[in-house]
User: What shape does this take?
Amino acid sequence: MRADRETNADTRAGLLPASVPSWLFLVSGLALAAAIVLIPAGHDLEKAERERDRAIHVEDHARERLRRYQLSLDAVNRGDPIYTEQLRFMLRGEGAPERDRLLPATSGTLTAFDPVVPMANVERGATRRTASRTSILERWAEDPRARLWVIAVAAILILVGLMPSAAAEERFDAQ
Assistant: This one.
């Protein structure tokens, strides 16, 4: 009678993960398989974000240059004497000795002759990971040969976790 109550309690409540050790293998195998898939995906995402940031910066740089060229063209079309004098010195290949006299003192006035701010480490990948921050699992996920071994271990762990436990077989035989 007592054995029937215990069997019915186990059947109603189901098997608790703590009481069946195969769950530990199943969960660890699934976590390992997920990590092997997600770590390279995360690295690819970081690389794509760096490329996107670089492309955005290049586009902004081109847009700024076009804006400056448009300002220069407008100055030429207006016949601006300061800009014309500056252009004359530049085309002769001479440095403007009286550059301070020629350029207006207003701040924020940029022409095509002013340098555009270069990219600040966007091309070089300033967000690149350092070697000291990579874990063993990351190294295994990036190495093709080690990755196959980790996938095989994860598959074995999942297989062991899905196998029926001896206690479940004993209960099945008792019924």
User: Anything to note?
Assistant: The chain has one domain: 2-174. Residues 100-107 have pLDDT under 50 and may be disordered. DSSP finds seven helices and no strands in the chain.
